[in-house]
Amino acid sequence: MDVHSGTFDPNEVSWQGLTLTPTAAAHIRELVSKQPDMQGLRLGVKQTGCAGFGYVLDTVTQPETEDLQFETDGAKLYVSRKAMPFIDGTVVDYVRDGLNQIFKFHNPKAQHECGCGESFGVQAE
């Protein structure tokens, strides 16, 4: 049995990355075109909700030094290395949901979601 000890360093991991769908990339480009100082969006996670974690999107005017950048068709998505263990491999989409248009996250690391879809949980590897 292989037992690992020590600490996890997100800077020493090779990430699969995040993907933007064409509709998500188009929406980010539209947001950036309306705000000249904006460079893209930052996707993060925070502890919240009944399942454990929730997604957080913020505008980015100046990327952080620890941010990883994922770009699709000129649309930039920034992610903190600290968030990557929870969202690596996620596909970010922008969809119409009823009368609303929202970002949707297809996260292969999410083991379960709450009933309302606002939070998700991950299983330790």
TrEMBL record:
Signal sequence annotation: none
Q: Does the keyword Iron apply?
A: yes
Q: Which residues form the Core domain?
A: 18-118
| Cited SUPFAM superfamilies | HesB-like domain
- List UniProt keywords, sorted A-Z: Iron
List the InterPro entries.
ATAP, ATAP_core_dom, Fe-S_cluster_asmbl/transfer, FeS_cluster_insertion_CS, HesB-like_dom_sf, SufA_proteobacteria
Q: Which NCBIfam families is this protein grouped with? A: iron-sulfur cluster assembly accessory protein (TIGR00049), PRK09504.1 (NF007050), sufA_proteo (TIGR01997)
Family, similarity comment: Belongs to the HesB/IscA family.
Instruction: Please state what the protein is called.
Output: Iron-sulfur cluster assembly scaffold protein
